[in-house]
Amino acid sequence: MRRRASDSQVHAMSPRVVLLFLAAALRPCAALVRLHSNSFSFTFLDAPARFGPRVGSDGICGSLRAAEPAEACEPIKDSGGRRGAGRKAFVLIARGNCSFEGKVRAAQKAGFDAAVVYDDEEKASLYSMVGDSEGIHIPAIFVSKMAGETLKKFARGEDDECCINSSMDETAGTVLVMSFVSLVVIISVLASFLFARNCRLLRHGVDNHPPYVKKHVVEKLPCSAYSAPCSSEDIFQEACAICLEDYNNGDMLRHLPCKHEFHKICIDSWLTKWGTFCPICKLEVTSS
Question: Where is the RING-type domain (predicted)?
Fold first, then answer.
């Protein structure tokens, strides 16, 4: 089958990671094709071909008819000749058995003003058709299988029943709305995360408030007045590990069971307000 060989050059329009669907929304090659009459209206996403001219900013409208043969790998029997000045005709072509470029050239040769190629398999994403632009002067778009079958079923060949919009035209508002909604969603998620985190930390702090030693227990710990060493060779100056102030003669020191000592006022405040362990070795005072 020649179709598979020609399609090997086509790659899927996959969205990139950003925060995910934003990239898909902002793809500049996504556009819209619309079929409408007095009794119904359908709108589908399409992917403009990467060869040939693009649809102008005002879009184009015309009648739509199915190709015969459906895949347009041979000359199209029905002519797309215009029925009056300014009136355009589009042809609906099924994917398969020949290249995208060949299908568009067949549509152009038959006198159609645009080619709408639809997939023959239901897929999650559209393809960007590739080919040689030389000699091609009509635009071409690619739509899904579902869109193609719907267009084929309801197209009546009436003037201006099918419209192809520019990729930078009607999708601009959609892109803006989706971008704004995405931004709101991201901010909401971050706010919820921070709120839950703060609540958890607050709850953790309340539930796990550091225990303290009762004042009468602390007062039973031994105390002594500090006396500086008399030796002039001892240049090491002892200091309280809590307030970091050097001990002075006469300062009252509190001795913990682990043999560490601190200013009495410092360690008393620590044990009765913040914790039950030695600030240096972490040994529990109560368990000692």
Answer: 240-282
pLDDT digits (tens, 9 = 90+) for 11-34: 433 333 344 444 344 444 457 888
3-state SS class at 208 = coil
Structural element, H or E, at residue 100: helix 100-109
Q: DSSP E strands: which ranges in the chain? A: 31-36, 41-48, 60-66, 89-94, 114-118, 140-143, 162-164, 223-225, 252-255, 261-263
The CA distance from 29 to 57, in Å, is: 13
Q: What is this structure's pTM?
A: 0.48
Q: What are the residue ranges of CATH 3.30.40.10 in the chain?
A: 215-273
The closest alpha carbon to 28, from 61, 60, 55, belongs to 55
pLDDT: which is higher, 201 or 140: 140
CATH class of 215-273: alpha beta
What is the arithmetic mean of pLDDT over 255-283?
90
pLDDT score recorded for residue 268: 92
Q: What is the largest CA-CA distance in the chain?
A: 118
Spatial distance between the Cα atoms of 77 and 68, rounded to a whole number of angstroms: 6
What pLDDT shows up at residue 82?
54
CA distances from 115 to 71, 82, 162 (A): 12, 15, 12
**CATH classification of 2-176 is 3.50.30.30, yes or no?**
yes
Q: How far apart are CA 63 and CA 41, in angstroms?
A: 14
Sheet containing 261-263: which strands, arranged edge to edge? 223-225, 252-255, 261-263
Q: Where in the chain is the domain with CATH 3.50.30.30?
A: 2-176
Tokens at 287, concatenated:
């368990």
